[in-house]
Amino acid sequence: MAEKALPHDHGQDIEKVLQVLPSQEVCTEAAGIFKQISDGTRLRILWLLCHCEECVSNIAAATDMSDQAVSHHLKLLRGGGLVVSRKDGKEVYYKLADTKQAQLVHRICEEMFQMTCPLG
Fold first, then answer.
1. Closest Cα partner for 44 from 22, 69, 21?
2. What is the block-wise mean pLDDT of the chain (120 residues), using blocks of 10 residues?
3. Residue 54 pairs with which residues in a beta bridge?
4. Residue at 19 is within a domain
């Protein structure tokens, strides 16, 4: 990154920080992930899918939601790269994506919010 001339010198070592300032693209990607988990319903569905692979109907029944509402949230989670799907006959099954970001979100849920992982 090119060195920037800052309008004020406050005696701090901001130059070192600016050398590793994340790009706008990286921050936009991170914000997208936070947006995905900022909805309580999506977070609940995501937590479920961290621990099992399920179809829309079972997710809907488990969360007292309609299939359409669950499908909407799953579409957003898939678009954000946190959930993946596979088709088996007429059923589509969803689970947590095997990505660094998805695994980190899982750990954050477990640790920060003390949501216990049922699978150990």
1. 69
2. 66 79 88 86 91 95 96 93 94 95 85 66
3. 94
4. no
Total number of domains in the chain: 1
Give the C-alpha separation, 46 to 107, whole Å.
Answer: 12
CA separation for the pair 108, 117 (Å, rounded): 12
- Is the pTM higher than 0.85? The answer reads no
Per-state percent for the chain, helix, strand, coil, to nearest 5: 55, 10, 35
Residues making up the chain, counted from first to last: 120
In a 13 Å sphere around the CA of 20, the CA atoms on its Cβ side amount to 3
- Give the domain CATH number at 75: 1.10.10.10
